[in-house]
Amino acid sequence: NEQVNLALVHTIWLREHNRLARILSQLNPNWSDEALYQEAKRIVVAEIQHITYNEFLPLLLGQEYMDKSSLTPRDRGWTQLYDRNLNGGITNVFATVAFRYGHSQLQASYMVMDALAIFVLI
To answer: In this structure, is residue 48 part of a structural domain?
Structure first.
């Protein structure tokens, strides 16, 4: 059942968000709950983007395609390729067919670390 493992991944990111919000709250005690939520969200999104573009996509697409398509993250600096008029939405075809590819990549089980720092197969 892929739902359990998908829920596991979502729970990990939820806990990372809450961990960051606690740290930000200690560093910025005058911030509102909304400010803490939004800043923790921005950091988690950046973490997911980093993993996606530096680790997942190069394996999925290949480094040559990443470079050719200007998807490889830069070590420094920025690019002027952003187009604010480009629609970032996805088509129904992608949403109903191709997007399912990610779910098919879920493993049947995962090794996780328990509260005692012991790896457990789930």
So the answer is: yes
